[in-house]
Hints:
Elements: H1 25-36, H2 39-52, H3 55-83, H4 87-90, H5 92-95, H6 101-130, H7 134-142, E1 144-145, E2 148-149, H8 150-166, H9 171-200, H10 211-218, H11 230-242, H12 245-250, H13 252-255, H14 261-294, H15 301-305, H16 311-344, H17 351-365, H18 375-384, H19 387-400, H20 425-444, H21 456-477
Antiparallel strand pairs: 1-2
Helix pairs in contact: 1-9, 1-14, 1-16, 2-3, 2-11, 2-14, 3-11, 3-14, 6-8, 6-16, 6-17, 8-16, 9-14, 9-16, 16-17, 18-21, 19-20, 19-21, 20-21
Amino acid sequence: xxxxxxxxxxxxxxxxxxxxxxxxxxxxxxxxxxxxxxxxxxxxxxxxxxxxxxxxxxxxxxxxxxxxxxxxxxxxxxxxxxxxxxxxxxxxxxxxxxxxxxxxxxxxxxxxxxxxxxxxxxxxxxxxxxxxxxxxxxxxxxxxxxxxxxxxxxxxxxxxxxxxxxxxxxxxxxxxxxxxxxxxxxxxxxxxxxxxxxxxxxxxxxxxxxxxxxxxxxxxxxxxxxxxxxxxxxxxxxxxxxxxxxxxxxxxxxxxxxxxxxxxxxxxxxxxxxxxxxxxxxxxxxxxxxxxxxxxxxxxxxxxxxxxxxxxxxxxxxxxxxxxxxxxxxxxxxxxxxxxxxxxxxxxxxxxxxxxxxxxxxxxxxxxxxxxxxxxxxxxxxxxxxxxxxxxxxxxxxxxxxxxxxxxxxxxxxxxxxxxxxxxxxxxxxxxxxxxxxxxxxxxxxxxxxxxxxxxxxxxxxxxxxxxxxxxxxxxxxxxxxx
Length: 483
């Protein structure tokens, strides 16, 4: 759509509603293959598999979680198709024209953390390959800097640099990259699973991993209940749903390029419940087959491929996993902060500059490596901060506005979404209430039960969205007094 006199403080070419809608179902499908088919995605799936205790439990927990993900992504995705705007612009409807910078920057900072985590995972695959050489192994063990081995630092910087090349030509280049990067890792994942199953001599369904090993591997996962219990399965489903917390906010950054809602629904159906369940099953088969072959639980695919006798196969696996991880960083952790930082300073920061800022922050985070913790812990802590934002935005769009939004007003400083000087007080009260119970209390106090943090994102959505709805309805119910 064409805009009428948009404010320069709220508009640039990258933030404007999408005019070219070339993304078909295959491109939407590959948003999800690029997002999930990474070393971190495999690590999380394999970790959750151990908590389920059996393949049947795993299918139930991941299957139900994937259906919820499909529903939630459809909510924000449909809004993107209908309005054509990216996440930070859509957030103006609920948080205000300038207040939207706060949720946008929260999402951007989270993306920077994930960017660092995924880059570290990709560089780890290369390190695992290189230390097969005795000289490299010696260098890796004896030379250190910035809290890591010097080899790890070098590989991290190389992978970090390669990713900058992908965004040079904008979103269409992102689409073309993900269209081949996502399927590539599927092929390698299947190869890895088949290779190990053949080597194990059996098609494994999880029973090969002894109970005492499962208990030992999951004791510090921060999940209530023993593997296979109802509490553990509920936590698995919740963690799997929370893993996508960032993209619940900014999936409209991609869906706005879809041809129509039907195309989006088809791409989401194949890319989410079907693809997610299939990917997790392959991760589970690979984990149990690797235990049979090597006698240990290996949660990282690069660690498995590093044990291959054939050097060429190890090289192929390492490169494929590294490329796949570049794919998720471009999709989930480049695109969003690029738009988010651009939204905060549209006259100074373009899409490309926003991506560079995100990459720089991820580089500065590397010495501290905050992602080097348990998969479930990291996912739930990062995800919980974004639950209240999602709750506020979806309540505003679907319950308050019934899916009808004046797109042109999103780019006007003194229009419908100005609220209190460009900030919507009700949204920030709701956001603060949600963050209090989703992140602050469970992380920094012992007031709430230990299991609360596992469901932090859900509490954030419910409390943030609920408070926002009550405040908006209360404001509408106030009688108007004549003056």
